Every structure is written in C-alpha cells, then in structure tokens.
Amino acid sequence: MTLENKLLVGSILPLFFYAAWFIAAYKFVNIRDWPKYYKTILFFNLASAIYSLIFLHTYPLWQYKNIFLGHTFLDLLNFIIGFPCATIIFLHYYPKKVYKQIIYILMFMLIYTSVEFIFYRLNSIVYYNGWSIGWSAIHNLYQFPLLMLHQRNPIWAWLISFVALAIIMYVFNYPIGSAL
C-alpha cells in the first residue's frame, strides 16, 4: 500500500471506529443508564483535555495525522463518541471477581492498543519525544482501572491521575518552562 493510500484509509478509518463504539454502546448497554456513568465520562474527557492543554502545542507525545479531519476534530469525536461509549461499556460490564477484572482490563487495553497500532501502521498517528505504542499500551493498562476507581472514588482517581501526569512529564523530559 502506498503512503498516499495509507493516509487516505487512515484518515477515514477513525470514523468507522467511532461508529463501532456507538453501535456497540447502543446495542449492548441500556442507553438510559448513561447518567450513572456521566461523572466518569467527564473524568475521561477532562483527563484527555488536560493532556492536550499541557502537551499538544508545546511538547506533544503523540498526535493524530488525518488529512480530512485533523487532530482537534478527532479529539472532539473522542470526547463526544469514543470516550463516552467506551466508558459506558467498560463500566456496565465490569466483573465482580478479581481474576475476571484482570482479564477484562487486559481485553480493553488490547482493544485500545490494537486500534492505535492500526492507526500507527496507516500513518494516522505520529509519536514524538520518545513516546511509542508500548507507552500507549502501558497507559491503557492503568487508564481503565482508573475509570472504575473514579466511578467508586473520584478523589483517589484524580490524585493518581495527577501523579501519573507528573511521572509522564518527568520520564519524557517535559520542558516545564515551555508551559509558562
């Protein structure tokens, strides 16, 4: 596949993934239950917005490369469709037994990481400043337990999120002066 074809497919593909998340949420979860998960959906969205505010314009770790929609519009689609649908599905079916929780979290981590890997192979996502698909997998591994923690105890989820943010800034040598 040529680079131009990869960019074309990679630019259209996110729309199919958003549609798939929406259809899955509509089909497998009672959509009237969304208020029960609303605060955690906002947590997911706000955490992503914080990343964008801190990193995106001064020291990005990753960025969507889309010839039709652009990074900002894809972020908006994540806020409106991707994150809410994923959060509702994840929380609705979260198992009670610990060993099933581990498998469930790994399953969501694999889904998110696999989708990102496809985007990477199609040149729809670009990594910067040392970030890679491996770091995304690690991020996805703690991101989903944080959603459940937020559903049960928002304060702890926010505290852990800010610690994770500080660690990411340290590990990837974020130039603190550039944000000021």
Biggest β-sheet: strands ordered side by side in the sheet: 1-2
**For the residues shown, what is the average pLDDT?**
90
Q: Helix fraction?
A: over 70%
Order of helices and strands: HHEHHEHH
Gyration radius, rounded: 17 Å
Largest sheet, in brief, is: 2 strands, antiparallel
Strands, count: 2
Pick out the low-confidence regions. none
Written overview of the protein:
There is one protein chain. The protein has helices at 3-28, 34-56, 70-92, 98-121, 133-152, 154-171, and strands spanning 62-64, 125-127. It has 180 residues and is mainly α. The chain has a two-stranded antiparallel sheet. The model has no long low-confidence stretch (mean pLDDT 90).
Question: What order do the helices and strands come in, and which of them pair?
Answer:
Layout: H1 3-28, H2 34-56, E1 62-64, H3 70-92, H4 98-121, E2 125-127, H5 133-152, H6 154-171
Antiparallel strand pairs: 1-2
Helix pairs in contact: 1-3, 1-4, 2-3, 2-5, 2-6, 4-5, 5-6
State the main characteristics.
180 residues; two-stranded antiparallel ribbon; mainly alpha
